[in-house]
Design a protein that fits this description.
The complex is a heterodimer.
Chain A: H1 3-6, H2 11-25, E1 31-37, H3 38-46, E2 57-64, H4 66-69, H5 72-85, E3 88-92, H6 105-110, E4 115-118, H7 123-130, E5 136-140, H8 147-160, E6 165-169, H9 174-183, E7 191-195, H10 196-202, E8 217-220, H11 224-240, E9 245-247, H12 259-268, E10 269-276, E11 280-289, H13 298-301, H14 318-322, H15 354-365
Parallel strand pairs in A: 1-2, 1-7, 3-4, 3-5, 5-6, 7-8, 8-9
Antiparallel strand pairs in A: 10-11
Helix pairs in contact in A: 2-11, 3-15, 8-12
Chain B: E1 2-7, E2 10-15, E3 18-23, E4 36-40, E5 43-48, H1 50-71
Antiparallel strand pairs in B: 1-2, 2-3, 4-5
Classes of the chains: A alpha/beta, B alpha+beta.
Bound molecules: iron/sulfur cluster.
Iron/sulfur cluster binds near residues 318 and 348 of chain A.
Chain lengths: ~375, ~70
């Protein structure tokens, strides 16, 4: 067992902290706190906090599920690579069931297309080496936490000179999305719980742009005490009218982040405009492989241009769920036409998806 | 996740009986057997220090007790 993590599950301390928060929030009515990160959404459910402070405090799930914000444009690119270029595709398992135009990568795999699942981006190298009669494209999905893994893969591809593997970046920039939500007027919340793992990579001052919107924010870890402590810090800030960013996850997050990971991201990627599901084109919303490495960029290698994206195919409201405009239970398809076995949208597929969290934990917690 | 062994830029980590391979090339130093790592998608982000985690918990406990006393 990981003793470091067990410390942050201490029941007695959690109980104390929980009742302390409960009494603090009793002075408020209708406080709204957004948890940016999909893992926080699931954990806040799992630990029983989601409805525990209502009606004084309500949690609102944010857009922090990288698979969920992967856009139809990007899925169209993946499908096009399979159909038109005959390459094999390697990616993380969560992306396989995401539907686009009535089909998913999982369906393609059932039809005999070459699709491999990896736990880490680096595993793509051994697949391409082992199955060297085929050209492979790694679909790089994720926020700043997974981009270093794609950078490490690119570094190995460059160093080994392997010819049958390239990368397409669907990576997203969390910093820009928080600013975009603020500018769009969609940050109608009193405070934000910021993602712990992203912050461990980029450092907790990365999100400084939030200051422009005057919303206090706290970087939070994932264990029960981490989350409760983060909530308490945030409530304190709201009470005192403080702005800015605090870090309540100091055992993992340093102000400057992980320098080697940041250098690796900067070596291989440029920040670029990018399409997010639910938000459309976001300025500086993504990461693209730098021009000097374009021979490893599948968009360049296979000349992906202007792929037609078919318009909305179903009644999925993931876009509204992702920006916290509605809760999944407000979607008419939730648990009627849409469930984890027959998902209409990515928020019901990904292990970080908000709709999946509501589906799974509402049942377990009653 | 607990480090079981280290080979070059990779190590085997274990959590709840499940073993996984993990890239450690982004860490500030090579971890040692028995140390704990913060891992995301097969990448180690940070070596976790039990001692400082314990200190954080102790501080938190003091803070809560203090605040509870003040609010009485
Ligand atoms: S419940 Fe299903 S259809 Fe509705 S928003 Fe979520 S994923 Fe989309």
């Amino acid at each position: 067992m990981n003793k470091s993590f067990d410390l942050f599950k201490d029941r007695e301390l959690a109980k104390k902290l929980f009742s302390h928060i409960k009494s603090k929030v009793s002075h408020f009515s209708n406080l709204k706190i957004m948890e940016f990160c999909g893992t926080h959404t699931h954990n806040i459910f799992q630990y029983g906090f989601r409805y525990a402070f209502q009606p004084n405090l309500k949690f609102i799930a944010g857009p922090g599920c990288p698979v969920c914000v992967t856009s139809d444009n990007e899925l169209a690119e993946a499908f096009w690579l399979l159909e038109k270029r005959g390459v094999g595709v390697i990616t993380y398992g969560d992306l396989l069931k995401v539907p686009y135009n009535g089909k998913s990568l999982f369906d393609y795999r059932s039809e005999g297309f070459s699709i491999e699942i990896v736990y880490s981006a680096i595993d793509a190298l051994s697949i391409a080496k082992k199955k060297s009669d085929k050209e492979w494209v790694f679909l790089g999905v994720g926020f700043e936490t997974t981009i270093p893994a794609t950078s490490a893969l690119l570094d190995l591809v460059v160093r080994t000179g392997i010819k049958n593997l390239s990368v397409i970046s669907f990576h997203k920039n969390t910093k820009s999305i928080i600013s975009a939500l603020g500018s769009l007027g969609e940050l109608r919340v009193d405070g934000i719980l910021l993602p712990g793992h992203v912050s461990a990579v980029v450092g907790w001052q990365y999100f400084n742009d939030i200051n422009a919107f005057g919303i206090p924010s706290v970087v939070v870890g994932f264990e029960p005490l981490d989350i409760l402590y983060g909530i308490k810090e945030l409530i304190d800030m709201i009470e005192k009218g403080e702005r800015g960013i605090k870090c309540a996850y100091k055992r993992a997050v340093q102000e400057e982040g992980n320098r080697k990971m940041l250098d690796s991201i900067n070596k291989f990627f440029d920040v670029t405009d990018c399409n997010w599901r639910g938000l459309g084109n976001i300025k500086n919303g993504g990461f693209e492989i730098k021009p000097e490495y374009s021979i490893y960029n599948a968009r360049k290698r296979y000349k992906i241009e202007n792929i037609e994206v078919l318009s909305k195919q179903n009644q999925c409201l993931c876009g509204d769920v992702l920006i916290g405009k509605i809760e999944p239970i407000e979607c008419p398809s939730f648990d009627v036409l849409c469930n984890p076995d027959a998902p209409l949208g990515p928020c019901m597929v990904s292990h970080e998806g908000t709709c999946l969290a509501y589906y799974k934990w509402s049942r377990i917690n009653g | 996740m607990k480090v079981l062994n280290v080979v070059d830029d990779f190590c085997t980590v274990e959590i709840n009986g499940v073993k996984k391979s993990c890239f450690i090339g982004f860490l500030e130093r090579k971890p040692e057997e028995g140390e704990y790592l913060l891992v995301h998608a097969g990448m180690a982000i940070k070596i976790l220090d039990y001692q400082s985690a314990q200190e954080i918990i102790d501080e938190l406990a003091l803070l809560i007790d203090g605040e509870l006393r003040d609010s009485e």
